[in-house]
Design goal:
The chain is an all-alpha fold. It has 4 helices and no strands. Helix 1 runs antiparallel to helix 2. The radius of gyration is 21 Å and the shape is elongated. The two termini are 30 Å apart. Keywords: Metal-binding, Zinc, Zinc-finger.
Amino acid sequence: MSDERVRYSDADLQEFKAVIKEKIEKAENDLKLIRESFINDQNNGTDDTSPTFKAFEEGAETLSKEQNSILAGRQEKFVRDLKNALIRIENKTYGICRVTGKLIPKERLLAVPHATLSIEAKNMQK
């Protein structure tokens, strides 16, 4: 029988939970800023500028909106992944690699709290 721990202790889970809640709060604030810049980006006040400059400005505005949309999508996924990690904490399955079944090292979870794969499993995917 292996002497490896099957799961993290309740104290460890509470530590991870605090880290994740902090990251969720920051990520949701970042998402709010991205959405606000997307909404407020409707008019840059270029109506009185030369037509050539306006064309460049409109192209940059379109690119900026596309980038904001991509950023918002990534940020929404990040928040969703963090919230799923909280569910795993409640289920006491947090930190267990979904491929190997081994505990993901604490250092990795503190760096990437929504991780579901160990480095070993991640490398097997390549």
